[in-house]
Amino acid sequence: MPPYKILTVFGTRPEAIKMAPVVKELNLHPEEFTCLVAVTAQHREMLDQVLRLFHIKPDYDLDIMRPRQTLEEITTRALTGLAGVLKEARPDLVLVHGDTTTTFVAALAAFYQQIPVGHVEAGLRTGDRYAPFPEEMNRRLAGVLTDIHFAPTAKARDNLLREGIAPEHIYVTGNTVIDALKATIREEYQFGDHGLAGLDFREKRVILVTAHRRENWGEPLKEIFTALRDLIRRHPDTALIFPVHYNPRVRQLAREVLGGQERVYLIEPLDYEPFVNLMNRAYLVLTDSGGLQEEAPALGKPVLVLREVTERPEAVAAGTVRLVGTAYRDILAAAEELLTDRQAYLQMAHAVNPYGDGQASRRIRSALRHYFGMTVARPQEFQPLGATGQK
């Protein structure tokens, strides 16, 4: 009988951003659900930024992050810590998100104690177990252990069906990142002391860049940065903003190739709120991130993906995202087309957003109600809407 106890578990900034709207939605209905939050904090500082922004105070904080931690260390510390949390909390269901090591380990820990698992953002696949690494295997392994799958898109649902998941265990909800985005974007936002206060977004077409994935370390990143340097040199009406990841391999190479270049801003990583408001004012996004492939289309921003494969093919098919890889010539050619061909730019900017409408968290709550037998009819599934935001 309700209220059912739901333990949400996450450990990184992207997970926290995408789970925060779910936590908020469940907390709005205490007669139905008691929502507890456990964080592993495999990424400490960046996680804490999001917890403060969304006013989430964890009920359990494992604080596992250590300098130069390995995947093995993250896995064992999280598994041991979550075992104790689950024994104390005794939830009716454990809710995990996405594809981090925390995601897989939390699903495994729940399985060991025979507690059902719900997987938010289930069903993303590249088909290559090493790309992205280790995320592709994390989400596949979590999927095997999951009882209720919250697929963000019909494509993600189809991936799960091909893997033998019963259709009655899958709910298509849209992606909760759009819920978080809509709650955070403000047209009047002021950047303050982020090294951006003097930049005139009306005078310069801003190219926003993120690049940090481990499969791109070394020569691929060098190709990316060199292409970006030459792109900015060729187009005086542009500026490049690169919040540089804390990883020393990324930082050193970024300084070597892009440091000291005119109209190139190498800034510290931004909290979620200034970052998405920066993206809202950008002209073009280049990234090797997964989440930005979902967020930028919701704002009408074309995205060039600096990877060889993506687990988010919906945006590629819709035309909001283009997979360009890491080769210098390919990056330069694709970016130049969008800077010089207005029709090509508008075609991407106005394409249909396949990822969400800001109601994913509500659909997840409805699906949980259905799973626990609180309602008989299955909730209505997400259908893509047109892109919103600036064009």
UniProtKB/TrEMBL annotation:
Superkingdom, taxonomy of origin: Bacteria
Keyword rRNA-binding: no
Keywords assigned by UniProt, alphabetized: Isomerase
EC numbers on record: 5.1.3.14
UniProt keyword Transcription regulation present: no
GO MF annotation terms: UDP-N-acetylglucosamine 2-epimerase activity
Domain UDP-N-acetylglucosamine 2-epimerase as annotated: residue spans: 31-368
Family: Belongs to the UDP-N-acetylglucosamine 2-epimerase family.
PANTHER family, alphabetized: UDP-N-ACETYLGLUCOSAMINE 2-EPIMERASE
Protein name: UDP-N-acetylglucosamine 2-epimerase (non-hydrolyzing)
The organism's taxonomic lineage, starting at the top: Bacteria, Bacillati, Bacillota, Clostridia, Neomoorellales
